[in-house]
């Protein structure tokens, strides 16, 4: 690889580290925590290391300080510091005894002290070394290892890097945590630490051989830098991959919820949208320009807020249909009846696109909910078409309290998934046929039987 190509690659990786450091910095401002602080330190130092380690950066720094070899010290200290913070972060996420927080703090303190002592020894040894020849960071380990101070410098560096990476890998591999995001990060942290140990596995034999005057393994030592690069990229994915995946999932769910939002928010009452003109006027007071109800939300910025807002608006729409008594049980009962018949009839099951086991309980509930909501909105629109602006309470007065939409008691943490299932079920064949059965029934509050034409 040419120097210009190597500089380009290193600067791209440096940009990745620095971008993650900025991203985690904003997160730290919102939620101060030691974990975010360690991640910022890891990626800020990693970005600087790759800038200095690039051929252009290496020569620039060396010329600026008048010491061609000095950037090597900065690079090695930066590498060890990066993986030291990763190591400490892993301990923080995987305490040996969660019921004894002081034990994790003591472990972190002892390792931090060990790293601090190692940094002191490395700095002293490097500055005491008599380095000569052209400065080449990739060949430093094998070309300068005949100097005793360099031997001490490299021994401390490789031993601490090996201990840190292997210990972090073992902790990441054996610990189980409940948080999916941390589990994802730990899995990739462990992989990155093991890959980085490949640098030690390549460098240690090459350094030992070169120290005894044998340079046959020099190329193996140079190969070790590739493990360091890969390990660094995996670390970046470890702290950002889960967040990016979650962001993509939130964008996906906003799109999936759109048909349901159109049905129970846009199709019921404009005031249900937090972005409606009347909502601004009533909720924000004067001084804000009225804006139309937002039908297609922005799925790039403030994605989590947008998704949360959509879920709240949909739930408000459902509650509005319940409050105004447009909801009835007939569609849900029709869905359950047809689903039961489909499990006994292969042709009907094929028509509905069901497997032999049919829908799971959650999927069946979602289909019933979708049918109930579509039926309620259709009844509301029919009343409006007749010029009837009253609610549907008078229609349900003879049958007692108006029924609720299925899934009403779903915990708040599970509402997003439930509503996504409902949105996906809105236009399932089972729901369409169930609504046809309900429309053809003369007893709106009874349990309709599917006519032969629907089967």
Q: In terms of per-residue confidence, which ranges show pLDDT below 50 for 5 or more consecutive residues? A: 277-292, 442-455
Structural class: mainly alpha
What is the correct CATH architecture of the largest domain?
A: Up-down Bundle
Indicate the percent of residues in helices.
over 70%
Any idea what the radius of gyration is? 32 Å
Number of helices in the DSSP assignment:
17
How many structural domains? 2
Write out key terms for the chains shown.
single chain, 455 residues, Rhopdopsin 7-helix transmembrane proteins, 2 domains, 0% strand, elongated, disordered C terminus
Which SSEs are present, and which pair or pack?
Layout: H1 3-30, H2 34-53, H3 55-65, H4 70-93, H5 101-128, H6 140-143, H7 148-174, H8 180-211, H9 218-266, H10 277-284, H11 303-323, H12 330-344, H13 346-352, H14 361-385, H15 393-396, H16 415-425, H17 429-440
Helix pairs in contact: 1-2, 1-9, 2-3, 2-4, 4-5, 4-7, 4-8, 5-7, 7-8, 8-9, 9-11, 9-16, 12-13, 12-14, 12-17, 14-16, 14-17
3D architecture notes:
The structure is a single chain. This protein has 455 residues and is an all-alpha fold. It has 2 domains: 235 residues, Rhopdopsin 7-helix transmembrane proteins, CATH 1.20.1070; 132 residues, no CATH class. It is 72% helix and 0% strand. α1 crosses α9, α7 runs antiparallel to α8 and α14 packs across α16. It is elongated. The C terminus is likely disordered.
């Amino acid at each position: 690889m040419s120097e210009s190509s190597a500089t380009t690659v290193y600067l791209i990786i440096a940009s990745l580290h620095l971008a993650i450091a900025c991203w985690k910095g904003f997160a730290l401002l919102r939620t101060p925590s030691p974990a975010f602080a360690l991640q910022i330190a890891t990626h800020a130092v990693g970005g600087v290391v790759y800038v200095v380690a690039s051929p252009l950066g290496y020569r620039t720094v060396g010329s600026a300080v008048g010491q061609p070899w000095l950037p090597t010290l900065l690079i090695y200290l930066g590498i060890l510091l990066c993986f030291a913070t990763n190591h400490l972060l892993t301990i923080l996420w995987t305490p040996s005894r969660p019921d004894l927080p002081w034990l994790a703090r003591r472990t972190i303190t002892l390792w931090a002290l060990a790293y601090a002592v190692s940094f002191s020894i490395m700095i002293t040894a490097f500055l005491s070394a008599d380095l000569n020849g052209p400065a080449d960071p990739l060949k430093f380990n094998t070309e300068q290892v005949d100097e005793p101070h360099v031997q001490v410098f490299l021994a401390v560096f490789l031993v601490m890097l090996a201990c840190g990476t292997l210990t972090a890998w073992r902790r990441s591999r054996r610990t189980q945590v409940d948080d999916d995001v941390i589990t994802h990060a730990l899995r990739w942290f462990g992989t990155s630490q093991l890959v980085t140990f490949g640098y030690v596995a390549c460098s240690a034999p090459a350094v030992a051989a070169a120290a005894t005057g044998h340079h046959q393994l020099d190329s193996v030592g140079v190969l070790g830098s590739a493990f360091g690069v890969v390990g660094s990229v995996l670390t970046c994915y470890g702290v950002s991959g889960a967040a990016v995946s979650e962001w993509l999932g939130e964008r996906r769910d906003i799109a999936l919820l759109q048909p349901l939002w159109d049905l129970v928010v846009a199709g019921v009452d404009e005031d249900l949208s937090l972005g409606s003109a009347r909502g601004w006027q009533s909720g924000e007071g004067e001084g804000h320009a009225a804006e139309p109800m937002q039908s297609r939300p922005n799925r790039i910025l403030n994605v989590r807020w947008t998704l949360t807002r959509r879920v709240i608006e949909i739930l408000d729409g459902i509650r509005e249909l319940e409050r105004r008594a447009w909801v009835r049980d007939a569609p849900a009962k029709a869905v359950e009846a047809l689903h039961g018949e489909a499990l006994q009839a292969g042709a009907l099951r094929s028509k509905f696109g069901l497997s032999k086991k049919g829908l799971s309980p959650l999927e069946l509930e979602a289909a019933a909910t979708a049918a109930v909501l579509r039926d309620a909105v259709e009844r509301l629109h029919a009343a409006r078409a007749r010029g009837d602006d009253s609610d549907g309470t008078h229609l349900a007065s003879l049958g007692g309290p108006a029924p609720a939409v299925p899934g009403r008691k779903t915990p708040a943490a599970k509402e997003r998934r439930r509503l996504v299932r409902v949105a996906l079920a809105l236009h399932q064949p089972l729901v369409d046929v169930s609504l046809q059965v309900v429309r053809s029934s003369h007893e709106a509050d009874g349990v309709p039987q599917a006519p032969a034409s629907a089967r």
